[in-house]
Amino acid sequence: MYYVYILNCSDNHPYTGCTNDLKERLKRHRDKQVLATANRLPIQLITYIAFKNKYTAYNFEKYLKSGSGRAFINKHLI
Fold it and tell me: For 43-54, what is each residue's pLDDT tens digit?
């Protein structure tokens, strides 16, 4: 499975990512091993979506990082 996830960071801005091991990825975020969130701790998992297909997951992550995807996150999740 592949997971697209959204974190709320200490600066109240979301972080969107994609992984095939969600628990390990969250651990890496919390251990400051992910540069994009290392200075934005603590983080909180808002939601995640599971996909069977890697390409579908990465395409959805790409959408969420677009202008309309960020608007979707702001309207429905935060």
Answer: 999 999 999 999
Q: Is the pLDDT of residue 77 over 80?
A: no
Contacts of 45 (CB under 8 A, 6+ apart): 5, 6, 7, 26
Of 10-14, 56-60, 74-78, the range with the highest mean pLDDT is 56-60
What CATH number is attached to the domain comprising 23? 3.40.1440.10
Q: What SS3 class is residue 69?
A: helix
Q: 5 forms bridges with which residues in the sheet?
A: 17, 48
Q: Are 49 and 3 in contact (CB under 8 A)?
A: yes
